[in-house]
Amino acid sequence: MNDALRQRLLAATRHRLESYLNEAEWAMVAEILSTTPCLVSAVRARSTKHGDHRWRTAEGYSEVTVNASGNQYQFFFTLLHELAHAVTFQTFGLRVAAHGREWRQTFSNLLKQALTAELFPEDLRSHVARQAAAPHASSSRDTSLQLAFRKYDTLNLRPLVAELAHGVLFSLDGKLILRRGEKLRTRFHCLTPAGQAYRVPGTARVHTLYH
Questions:
Q1: Residue 156, in any domain of the structure
Q2: Which of 138, 129, 110, 122 is nearest to 51 (CA)?
């Protein structure tokens, strides 16, 4: 890839992320992009994922999208997760496992770099450090991390299932009504009014509460 295209990608990414990253965060991201051609965009929040990485074969660079969730630290954490995919893919090639050893090591290194630079507030650092020690393919599985991020939400203020009291009726989609039951590791045993059982992640966002 020629330097002119790399610089255009860098400039376009900075313009798209200027409302989501502070100068210290951007400095780290720019350093990554200086060796890993990538176009990054903030997109409308998706219910199925926090971010996404794709390789644009014809263009010869990665494209990353991150949910504009209104939580600056979740955004930055997810961005590092997806940039780790870009770095891993461009370093190890097409056959590398999506969340294999190479990605885990790369993501771990990026999180440790961010922790060293104190890019996460003090109350989040132990949670991020735990992820750096053993990265998860999906941070949604880490309930304590998601609850810690929750304190910094500014847009999506809907509660997590883990925050509900035992026995509360709720819905994740405004249709299926569930009653929150006992915790089973990272999921909760929930029942419909008809008695059908579901195992619901503690980090799932509630759509509707019923009183």
A1: no
A2: 138
Give this prediction's pTM: 0.80
Q: Tell me which H or E stretch contains 4.
A: helix 3-17
Q: Are residues 32 and 123 in the same domain?
A: yes
Last residue of a domain, one of 100, 122, 150: 150
Residues 53 and 83: their CA atoms lie apart, in Å, by 8
Question: Which domain covers residue 187, as residue numbers?
Answer: 161-210
3-state secondary structure of 197: strand
* pLDDT tens track for 55-108: 998 888 999 999 987 789 999 999 999 999 999 999 999 889 999 999 999 999
> Which residues, other chains included, contact 47 with Cβ-Cβ below 8 Å and sequence gap of 6+?
205
* CA separation for the pair 63, 5 (Å, rounded): 14
Q: Tell me how many domains the chain contains.
A: 2
Q: Across the chain, where does the E strand assignment appear? A: 38-43, 51-56, 61-67, 169-171, 177-184, 187-191, 197-201, 208-210
Cα 209 to Cα 211: distance, rounded to the nearest angstrom: 7
Q: Report the length, in residues, of the chain.
A: 211
For residue 104, CA distances in Å to 37, 88, 137 come to 20, 9, 8
Task: Look at residues 108, 101, 159 and name the one whose alpha carbon lies nearest to residue 131.
Answer: 108
